[in-house]
Amino acid sequence: RQMCIRDSINYMNMKCWIAALVLSGGLFAACSDDVVVGQVDESKYTTGDGSVMGYISDNYGKRMFTNVEFRSAGDVSLYLKTTAKLTAEAAVTVAYDETVLTEYNNKYGTSYEVFPKNEVTLENGGVIKMAAGAVQSSEMKVSYVSDGNLDSDRSYIIPLRMKVTSGDFKLAEEDQTRLIFVKDLTGIPDCNKYVDGKPGVKVFSCMEVNDTNPLNNLSFTLKSNGKPLVDALIIFSANINYNAETGRVYIFNNENVQALLDQREHYLKPLQDRGMKIILGLLGNHDRSGVANMSKETAEAFALEVKAMCDAYQLDGIFVDDEYSDYEYSNITPGFVYPGKEPAARLCYEVKKAQPERWVIAYAYTTTYGLPSIDGMQSGEFVDYALHDYGGSSDLSSSFPGMPKSNMGLYSQEFNQGRTASESSLRSMRDNGYLSHMIFAMDPNRSNFEWSQLPAMERMARAFYDDELVFDGMKYPKDWN
After folding, report:
1. 69 is catalytic
2. How far apart are CA 284 and CA 280, in angstroms?
3. Options 255, 323, 342, 423, the catalytic residue
């Protein structure tokens, strides 16, 4: 990894502008294709009276939130699960209920809008049935279609309320309501690639933007379908800093990151128009603040600033990387705690709570290599993707419980240093269901492009998609001041 240049920008002006946007209310913005029923830690459902507890999980194994994108039509499956086998048939009835969203908006100060009720269908009348002796029900599909009137830049909510209608069990309070965040991308191109009808690998292009133009991600496509090789850009990187005078942790952007955000219509929107996600990296910056030492209150406040930043620049998520912080290990400043995995997990959890529709991506490196549960929620619930450090290839199920294999990134490559992966390793990754991958420092203007970077991406096209890479010859230089 290269270090970001730490030159100053007029942070206070940017902060006031974002705050004005937040107060004006004109804000919104994006999640998964793998169909795997995940595992939930049931220890939090034990009761003193021995009652059997039930909870609701979707086909991604998520209990906190369900995030989906669709074109024309889509669906998500809900399941009832219990902590012990039931002696008789059981049922939960699911109903579309706008008051669920009203309660959520009032509680968190958000202003999400409902997905149109007449475009939603609940399978089997909304009844989830579980047979006697089972611990998981059959699926109940929530289906939805596009009415052609929704804004593709915003997430809408399908608000659901659940009620036990038969069976000797209790439904956990947090499972009595559910929000499905829906983004209608009908008419917008997508980057999703498929192999034999199954989802292909998602490629995350992490770019050191001090010297690389993000538009270079547009130059590489697949021969069979013209889709971009890259699925998401990670802007490397915004910084976490501490203001000793105010006692506040804040986001700092150097002049290169800020230039791209200020000129997003030129440098970032063209990628989003092709279906790519834009992710903002968050990295320490040589002071006492960082990913892994914020108190709960500090993390909650910082998460709101992250949301304001993502809202202001229409970003699709964040990439959390715990490096370059000068943590305190004694005489710890108020607002901070002893550095460790739990506060790192807390930060990810609070960011996810503040903007459930956006991705939270963890770099599986240093403190963020494996995160514990927070408030009873497994880290795979509030971290959407985990991307290994260069060359890392181990399964991350024990490090991020509840995360599907498809969202674990293996064999990351560092193009500037020529640290690339073999075609056999990449193919093995795909064949074993690990469908996420990161490349760092891709830039066709570098001297090693022809003999190192380009062959590496050609191997990716073959291994991930059984396809050929097409390079259109465009090399975008850094052209901002």
Report:
1. no
2. 13
3. 323
